[in-house]
Fold this sequence. Notes:
single chain, alpha/beta, Cytidine Deaminase, domain 2, 6-stranded mixed β-sheet, about 25% helix, globular
Amino acid sequence: MIENMELVKELGAGATISQTAKLYRTHDMIEYTTDSELAYADLINATLALNIASEFYDVCGAVFVKNNTLTAAALGATIFDAFKNAIDCNPIDSICGVVALTKEVNVDIARLLTSQHIVLAPEFSKEAINVLEINKVKYVKIDTPLKDYKNYLQEEITLTPFGTIIQDVNKKELDKDSFKVVSKLKPTVEQIEDAIFAWKISKYLKSSAIVVAKDFKTVGISQGLQSNASEYALNIACDNAKDAVLATDVPLTMHDLNTAVQCRVKLIIQPGVVQNVLKQADKFEVSMITTGISNFSLS
């Protein structure tokens, strides 16, 4: 498969230090410039961060990724507000990792980054670059417009002993024909906006994803758990779950709903709902939206 591909560089270590990795050029690659070499982990983390950030290319957004796992995401009136809001979501995990920003990085943001960060953005001010270089922060300028980023997402290839699996990239968007408010209590405009924000993020998470969001901030995230996913995310959200929205890639069970009710979640957005769960939601005046779209992923 790689015979006709151009080798870009040796990456050294791969997913583990006992593995080696190489980067090959494909026919569709985004354009970027960087001040330093990117390792295997940097490229994997940067891809997830940009996947999510590209969903919000037209607003000020910030995404933090660590170990190929989303740790925080937020929007703001300014890019600095979005950056600070994302840190507030998860102050501990935000001290290192990849940060993707949708607008120009200014000197105020640069001063808050350390050598433990890699920052990606479409633009950097000269003052920001000076600070980043002094503090030895890796930075990557994404020259391809974020609004066009999804055009560069290619087929996903998995090599198995049974053969090579090739599948399309999940580019599914919310559809107004399947996006339905099914509860008696109708959500507010602000709640619907938070729900869309949470849903867009959940699309890129591992199976059984739960995103609890409030005021365009991820206050609780759970992914890849086989049970109690909603409890885990809501425990992280803690008091911030009050009046928040919850997005899930699988229909909630009665237990999940009751947990959300106890945490005073006000809106749930999910692929579908069974009648007894909907009836319970109406009883406790929880708004509910169904999308008709399942983003449940094995990866």
